[in-house]
């Protein structure tokens, strides 16, 4: 059944309903706020989702709930906001009246200096506070990974963050009190129709369902598919590429599901890192720890695991981790589906096994069975919110006699695609899991990889660090007593 | 109508000096209502500019085809150097080497060649990419590491400092070490990029709203480029979204371009750089190659030293001369060198022209000093902290002979001994040193390291004429006060501190003092807000202005009440006149009725200082600020990754004007210094393109990079040796080099892999890669 079509985009901005019938597919929320609405509390710091000065909250309905998440307005396209509630810093203390608890804490604890990053910090802390009113330092720091401050050294901001709840209760917060009415208003906007806006070279579509998406892409096989826009956003802001026609899939409900059956987790292509975080942290803790180091919170709130796979980055971060787990990928074209091993999706640099009109629907991730040792180690110049220099994922199954029954090792940042270390795996398989076996396998890295030198790392470092990650994996699986890695959050 | 009802019985005013006050704009910061240049309401018809940048590092421009740019949607005009009505030149050092737009040649990748003016910013940016420019490429010099300082082109005159006979001291020293260090630069990464909004007026007038630390210089540069007198140009800035030195001279280009376009097109024009353009086309902290040759005795006492500080200046002089100078001024850090020879080499390169950055070369000089300390410590087999203490300048009050700097200034106010001793105690240096040794003995992969490093930072512009300031204070008939001065607000709380000084002077509550935007029309010929001097200079100038008015009020009260002047005393929000207490507001009103002038221009110039660059001698600094930091790190010797476990800081701000503001400066300065020396890496490719030109690739510290434990304290006992403003000390730059403690803690952890027998010679920034490579090198040298 063909979906009904609506030629207007509808959402709520702060306390106002907004209906747009004409908006470009590459119009960012930030530019629209600042230029069309003259809401200039939200700042542009980088236009690439790395500094957080443009952070706003986007509330979306998840079942009967309304979930607010901090996002980077600079790389968020308007088309992705259908039936959402956009909250900017101007909404917190209307008419500069009494300050919101988050704001008052930041004032009292001297959390601002130049003030330019401050509205973004306010919004990130607000998002955190609604979820976790008395957060741990880890939660605070994780929530602020996507917010750069160049003045304060952060200490005063952290002091503010710890104090917010002493200024007020979440239940009394305006967004909490308005929640029921906002949910009702958003529900009223959501007519289940496909949204089509624009014409000619300035068109975008928001499909109504996964079947509708299949139909849209069959009709428009060259369309740019946008889920979280944490990558495509930069095609626009940095490269000024034309992305029309654009298909926004972030709202397609069927793609937003996660399920766990018979030891296999199926993650829909529209599931964001943040949505997957708690669940994966519980089921496959190493993946949770990895997600906490991908992007900042705003990027994790927008970016999807499916998008991370579909865009074919040679670095990852999820693909090598998922390849080592033996994951499979389901692609859909029209109504036809096929499932392939994830590693086969990556053919060459910039080339994936995806047909025109086909889209990534879900990834299936086997949960490591009892006794399997699984680890993911990411190395980057800065520990959090940085693109990987090299990442190694290890999946080891030992036989009863202590020999390697099977091992899967996959790396990002070492080749033109996420890639298995096949020669290393071969050198380990069937051998006793000992230091001498590991050392004997190390030279095989030279067969598997010829990394590049770039601004993130030299080829020499990448190779050495990649090898040492196997050494680390050995140490952590062989009962070493002394620490084998440094961590900000481990007990000192 | 005023809501203000001053407390006329108060024992103290609210918001005087030495009281903790919140940033005056804090409530606006948190509500998003603080207005930055890009947030201002634009005049109707405002146009937007975009830059066309060079895509070769060095070349002759053969042809420039802008037809597609001109034809692009929304484009109104395209400016090239030929459109500059005055002089195509904005060199802050008047070296005639800094064009507004490239003329005939380009000298770095990213140099602005043309400027598109369009109806929208997006249209301007899109159009700028359509130019067809042909170059005849010339050989490009990108890095300085392998350059010969004796023969390579320099952008300005280098400096040599000399005291005693270094050559002889080195030759006769019992021990001697030579080495080299590579020290990276740093992007300012102010969150608000460069931006200017120019609004043309009648005749030759123009107002430029510009995110600049140096409104007067921007004014003069704009006038120069427009070919009009300075009186025609007004530059105004209420606040910046960070500066850090990056908007001292680097703001001028945007201002000039916006102004030229605005005058030509008779419309308001705004130019705001994209982050990539900002990082590509504007200057940064200089990276250095430091050569050192140090002679010392078996105890580790330094006898003689010879240094060369080569710096990557980029294609023009900009501030490279004085930055190199300040590196030499701090090549001693807090240490006495009996014999010293040090020279700078501001080398020409085909990279963006480097510029001021918090510390202005000083931190780089101190990195050289601390590397030398490490070398000596490893050579004699002692803890580097012992070597540091052994070589300190004589403490204040000690009548010794170890107190003369390489520039022949006597250090009279040295309190580093006490600061280090107190910090050593509070941070439990000795106990942790022992615990770390025990930990490392049983931990083959993760190694811990500890370091305590001192800071002595000279306060004053070395350019003598910059050490002056002006202020303008008006008292209105209702007793409210309008305050203006030449300093600019970039987050450091300068306006607040100066307002506190004014409130203190009049003995009125702080909220009676209005902070106003910095503008060249109110206070002329000001110095850039730089060299940590903002509060020192402008605070004194504002105090002077307030005092003039106060004197007139005293005269008036004494006269009308027929009492001696001494019997007129300013109390909180009131004035005691003989036996009577009159509210301040009433006295002001009475004075007005009696035609007393209630406005004054204040002025200040720093006393005592002088500097003869040719001779390398003088009293270059009015005083020194001191501090020390102790940091502990954990290093993963398999990958080079690390975390900062703990940092303790004790810092001297004299009698702090506002402790909360000063603590913020210390914390922020430390983290910025740490970032410079750890994860912030500027990386050029072989074409001379900066590839780390945005936060995706250039990594400043995050909240999660703070030390896990971070204890920051101000000395509660120190006060400025000289009569500074309320005996406070400058605080902008001095805390930044506290970040050296992290570099040296990393070095200490690395040294443990070779039993602390080999100096790790860790270069900076100490990325995980550099750390791992140093670990590998030491292991190889130690045969492990």
Automatic annotation (TrEMBL), chain A:
Cross-referenced Gene3D superfamilies: 3.10.20.30, 3.30.465.10, [2Fe-2S]-binding domain (1.10.150.120), CO dehydrogenase flavoprotein, C-terminal domain (3.30.390.50), Uridine Diphospho-n-acetylenolpyruvylglucosamine Reductase, domain 2 (3.30.43.10)
Keywords: FAD, Flavoprotein, Iron, Metal-binding, Oxidoreductase
Residue ranges of every copy of the FAD-binding PCMH-type domain listed in the record: 197-370
Enzymatic class: oxidoreductase
Presence of keyword Metal-binding: yes
EC number: 1.17.1.4
Molecular functions (GO terms): xanthine dehydrogenase activity
Protein name: Xanthine dehydrogenase small subunit
Organism: Aquamicrobium terrae
TrEMBL record, chain B:
Keyword vocabulary terms for this entry: Molybdenum, Oxidoreductase
Alphabetical list of Pfam families matching this protein: Ald_Xan_dh_C, MoCoBD_1, MoCoBD_2
SUPFAM superfamilies noted in UniProt: CO dehydrogenase molybdoprotein N-domain-like, Molybdenum cofactor-binding domain
InterPro entries to which the protein is assigned, alphabetical: Ald_Oxase/Xan_DH_a/b, Ald_Oxase/Xan_DH_a/b_sf, Ald_Oxase/xanthine_DH-like, AldOxase/xan_DH_MoCoBD1, AldOxase/xan_DH_MoCoBD2, AldOxase/xan_DH_Mopterin-bd_sf, Xanthine_DH_Mopterin-bd_su
Entry keyword annotation includes Disulfide bond: no
EC number(s) per entry: 1.17.1.4
One GO MF term: xanthine dehydrogenase activity
Domain Aldehyde oxidase/xanthine dehydrogenase a/b hammerhead: 31-139
UniProt-recorded name of the protein: Xanthine dehydrogenase large subunit
Species in which this protein is naturally found: Aquamicrobium terrae
Lineage start: Bacteria, Pseudomonadati, Pseudomonadota, Alphaproteobacteria, Hyphomicrobiales
């Amino acid at each position: 059944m063909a979906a009904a079509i609506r030629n207007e985009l509808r959402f709520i901005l702060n306390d106002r309903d907004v209906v747009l019938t004409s908006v470009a597919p590459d119009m960012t929320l930030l530019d629209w706020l600042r230029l069309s609405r003259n809401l200039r509390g939200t700042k542009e710091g980088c236009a690439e989702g790395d500094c957080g000065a443009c952070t706003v909250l986007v509330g979306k309905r998840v079942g009967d709930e309304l979930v607010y998440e901090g996002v980077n307005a600079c790389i968020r396209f308007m088309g992705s906001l259908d039936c959402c509630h956009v909250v900017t810093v101007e909404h917190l203390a209307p008419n500069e009246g009494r300050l919101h608890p988050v704001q008052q804490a930041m004032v009292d604890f001297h959390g601002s200096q130049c003030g330019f990053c401050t509205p973004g910090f306010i919004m990130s802390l607000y998002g955190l506070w609604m979820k976790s009113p008395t957060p741990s330092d880890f939660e605070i720091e994780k929530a602020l990974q996507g917010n750069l401050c160049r003045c304060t050294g952060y200490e005063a901001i952290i002091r503010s963050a710890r104090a917010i709840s002493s200024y007020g209760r979440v239940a009394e917060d305006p967004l909490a009190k308005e929640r029921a009415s906002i949910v009702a208003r958003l529900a009223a906007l959501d007519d289940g129709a496909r949204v089509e806006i624009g014409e000619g070279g300035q068109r975008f579509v928001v499909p109504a369902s996964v079947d509708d998406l299949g139909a849209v892409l069959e009709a428009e096989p060259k369309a740019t598919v946008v889920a979280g826009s944490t990558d495509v956003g930069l095609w626009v802001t940095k490269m000024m590429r034309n992305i029309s026609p654009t298909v926004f899939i972030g709202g397609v409900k069927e793609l937003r599901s996660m399920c766990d059956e018979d030891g296999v987790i199926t993650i829909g292509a529209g599931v964001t890192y943040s949505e997957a975080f708690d669940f994966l942290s519980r089921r496959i803790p190493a993946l949770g720890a990895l997600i906490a180091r991908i992007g900042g919170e705003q990027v994790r709130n927008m970016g999807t695991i499916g998008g991370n796979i579909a865009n074919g980055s040679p670095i990852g971060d999820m693909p090598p981790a998922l390849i080592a787990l033996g994951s499979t990928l389901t692609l859909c074209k029209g109504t036809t589906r096929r499932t392939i091993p994830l590693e086969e999706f990556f053919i060459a640099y910039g080339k994936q096994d995806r047909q025109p009109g086909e889209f990534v629907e879900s990834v299936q991730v086997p949960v490591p069975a009892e006794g399997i040792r699984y680890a993911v180690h990411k190395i980057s110049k800065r520990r959090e919110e940085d693109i990987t220099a090299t990442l190694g994922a290890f999946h080891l199954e030992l036989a009863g006699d202590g020999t390697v029954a099977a091992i899967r090792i996959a790396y990002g940042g070492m080749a033109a695609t996420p890639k298995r270390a096949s020669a290393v795996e071969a050198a380990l398989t069937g051998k006793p899991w000992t230091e001498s076996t590991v050392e004997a396998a190390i030279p095989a890295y030279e067969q598997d990889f010829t990394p590049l030198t770039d601004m993130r790392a030299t080829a020499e470092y990448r190779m050495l660090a990649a090898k040492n990650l196997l050494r680390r994996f050995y140490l952590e699986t062989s009962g070493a007593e002394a620490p084998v890695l440094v961590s900000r959050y481990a007990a000192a | 109508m005023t809501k203000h009802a001053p407390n006329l019985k108060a024992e103290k005013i609210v918001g005087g000096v030495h009281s903790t006050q919140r940033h005056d704009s804090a409530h606006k910061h948190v509500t998003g209502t603080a207005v930055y240049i890009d947030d201002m309401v634009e005049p109707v018809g405002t146009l937007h500019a975009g830059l066309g940048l060079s895509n070769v590092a060095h070349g002759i421009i053969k042809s420039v085809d802008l037809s597609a740019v001109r034809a692009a949607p929304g484009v109104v005009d395209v400016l090239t150097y030929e459109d500059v009505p005055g002089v195509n030149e904005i060199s802050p050092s008047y070296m005639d080497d800094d064009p507004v737009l490239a003329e005939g040649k380009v000298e770095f990748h990213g140099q602005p060649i043309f400027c598109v003016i369009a109806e929208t910013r997006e249209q301007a940016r899109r159009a700028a990419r359509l130019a067809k420019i042909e170059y005849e490429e010339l050989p490009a010099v990108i890095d300085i590491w392998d350059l010969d300082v004796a023969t390579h082109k320099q952008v300005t005159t280098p400096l040599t400092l000399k005291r005693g006979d270094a050559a002889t001291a080195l030759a006769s020293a019992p021990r001697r070490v030579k080495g080299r260090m590579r020290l990276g630069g740093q992007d300012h990464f102010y969150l608000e990029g460069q931006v200017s909004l120019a609004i043309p007026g009648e005749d030759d007038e123009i107002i430029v709203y510009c995110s600049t630390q140096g409104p007067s210089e921007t004014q003069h540069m704009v006038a120069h480029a427009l070919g009009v007198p300075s009186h025609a140009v007004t530059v105004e800035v209420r606040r910046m979204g960070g500066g850090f030195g990056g908007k001292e001279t680097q703001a001028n280009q945007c201002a000039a371009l916006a102004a030229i376009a605005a005058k030509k097109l008779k419309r308001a024009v705004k130019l705001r750089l994209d982050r990539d353009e900002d990082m590509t086309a504007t200057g940064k902290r200089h990276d250095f190659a430091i050569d050192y040759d140090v002679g010392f005795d078996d105890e580790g006492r330094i006898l003689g030293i010879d240094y060369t500080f080569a710096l990557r200046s980029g294609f023009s002089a900009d501030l490279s001369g004085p930055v190199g100078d300040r590196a030499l001024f701090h090549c001693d850090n807090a240490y006495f060198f009996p014999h010293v020879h040090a020279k700078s080499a501001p080398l020409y390169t085909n990279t963006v022209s480097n510029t001021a950055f918090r510390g202005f070369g000083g931190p780089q000089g101190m990195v050289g000093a601390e590397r030398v300390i490490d070398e000596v410590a490893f050579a004699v087999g002692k803890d580097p902290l012992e070597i540091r203490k052994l070589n300190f300048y004589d403490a204040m009050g000690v009548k010794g002979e170890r107190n003369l700097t390489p520039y022949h200034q006597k250090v009279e106010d040295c309190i580093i001994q006490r600061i280090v001793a107190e910090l050593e105690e509070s941070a439990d240096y000795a106990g942790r040193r022992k615990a770390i040794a025990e930990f490392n003995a049983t931990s083959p992969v993760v190694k811990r390291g500890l370091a305590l490093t001192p800071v002595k930072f000279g306060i004053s512009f070395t350019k003598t004429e910059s050490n002056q300031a002006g202020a303008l204070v008006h008292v209105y008939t209702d007793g409210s006060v309008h305050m203006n001065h030449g300093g600019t607000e970039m987050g450091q709380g300068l306006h607040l501190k100066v307002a506190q000084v004014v409130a203190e002077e009049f003995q009125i509550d702080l909220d009676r003092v209005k902070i106003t935007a910095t503008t060249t029309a109110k206070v002329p010929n000001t110095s850039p807000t730089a060299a940590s001097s903002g509060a020192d200079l402008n605070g004194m100038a504002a105090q002077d202005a307030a005092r003039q008015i106060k004197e007139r009020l005293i005269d008036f009260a004494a006269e009308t009440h027929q009492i001696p002047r001494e019997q007129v005393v300013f109390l909180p929000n009131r004035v005691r006149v003989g036996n009577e207490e009159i509210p301040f507001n009433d006295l002001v009103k009475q004075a007005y009725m009696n035609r007393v002038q209630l406005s004054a221009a204040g002025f200040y110039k720093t006393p005592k200082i002088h500097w003869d660059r040719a001779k390398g001698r003088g009293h270059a600094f009015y005083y020194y600020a001191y501090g020390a930091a102790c940091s502990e790190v954990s290093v993963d010797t398999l990958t080079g990754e690390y975390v900062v476990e703990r940092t303790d800081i004790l810092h001297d701000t004299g009698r702090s004007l506002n402790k909360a503001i000063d603590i913020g400066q210390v914390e922020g300065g430390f983290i910025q210094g740490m970032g410079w020396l750890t994860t912030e890496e500027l990386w050029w490719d072989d074409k001379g393109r900066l590839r780390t030109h945005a936060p995706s690739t250039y990594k400043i510290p995050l909240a999660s990079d703070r030390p896990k434990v971070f204890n920051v304290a101000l000395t509660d006992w120190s006060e400025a040796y000289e009569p500074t403003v309320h005996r406070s000390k400058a605080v902008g730059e001095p805390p930044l080099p506290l970040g050296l403690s992290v570099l040296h803690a990393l070095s200490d952890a690395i040294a443990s892999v070779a039993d602390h027998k080999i100096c790790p010679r860790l270069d900076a920034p100490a990325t995980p890669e550099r750390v791992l490579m140093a670990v590998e090198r030491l292991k190889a040298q130690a045969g492990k």
